[in-house]
Amino acid sequence: MPYRAISIISPEFGKIPLNVSSHEDEPNVIILETNQPFGTIKWTISNYKKFNLWHATYQIKQPVRLIISINKQYLGFLFVLKNRLQYYLKGLSSIVVEEHQYDLFYAPSIQLEYNFDSKTYIICGFNYSTSSFKVWSNVFKPLKSLITSVNSKVPYRLRNTPANSTPRMIVPLFNMLQCNYSGLLKKRFLSIKTSEITFYALQNADYRKLEFETEYEEIKRMLDVKEYLLNNLTNPGTTHQIALRFGLNDFKLKKSFKSVFGTSIYAFLLEERLLNAQQAILETDLPLKQIAELAGYSELSPFSNAFKSKFGFSPSTLRKQIP
Length: 323
What we know:
Elements: E1 6-10, E2 14-16, E3 19-23, E4 26-36, E5 39-47, E6 51-60, E7 64-70, E8 74-82, E9 85-89, E10 92-97, E11 101-107, E12 110-116, E13 120-128, H1 130-134, H2 143-152, E14 156-157, E15 163-164, H3 167-177, H4 183-205, H5 216-231, H6 239-245, H7 250-261, H8 265-283, H9 288-294, H10 300-311, H11 315-320
Antiparallel strand pairs: 1-2, 1-7, 3-4, 4-5, 5-6, 6-13, 7-12, 8-11, 8-13, 9-10, 9-12, 11-14, 11-15
Helix pairs in contact: 2-5, 3-4, 5-7, 6-7, 8-9
């Protein structure tokens, strides 16, 4: 994850500046830090050809919401090592990951939203290259659905709920984060430990018995439906029209979509429109009324109410914090 691809914005404090440093003897390691009124953030990112290992510590003194954008695909794990964490990820539903749990997902790019309380959070994860992760699908067949989403560039979470970590994962994770090796020896050590943890994480989560009883072809069809919805957020048509497009009846479409993605089509469209509106506020100078119309609202007031209900702050409050 190149640091230039990363930006952090807080609706309360505006854009968060990041101080960048690196070690002379560790060119693959980048450290991003910031000290703000709400607390301090420190990311350590080790970049390698087949994967990135990242480790983040958030020492929060007052509740804050952070919107993190990373202009790079993410394919891999997020482990919560200290405190529970709730976050939204563009294209996926909100999830709560408890301490010593983990999430496995794919996103073409990251627009991540964290809700922090006044606590210390420790998070880490692996971001794999596509080719290196595909090897795991030969061992764990249900990963085929995840790989299909990668090929289609459609966000996808393999489980609707996080899985529990075990000592076989936690111990080597801390060994990696406290690694004193350097150079090629460090790279080989991290590579071995990453593969070890990935194996146990996939085995422990038991992806052979997915939470939904859906055949692979049905998952693939729902990925196609999701891609269609993402490409036609403003005018996807009625549920009946969408069902006809994909050779289904209304009931089958609704049931399968909810089974695979853990949310209804209506809730998915609403969340994606609001996330796109949030991104438009952050990245463009479009008037809020025009952004509301793009999100499917003819009036600014109901859009503002829906936006505040989801994110906890109004569109105008977010716009004022943009430098």
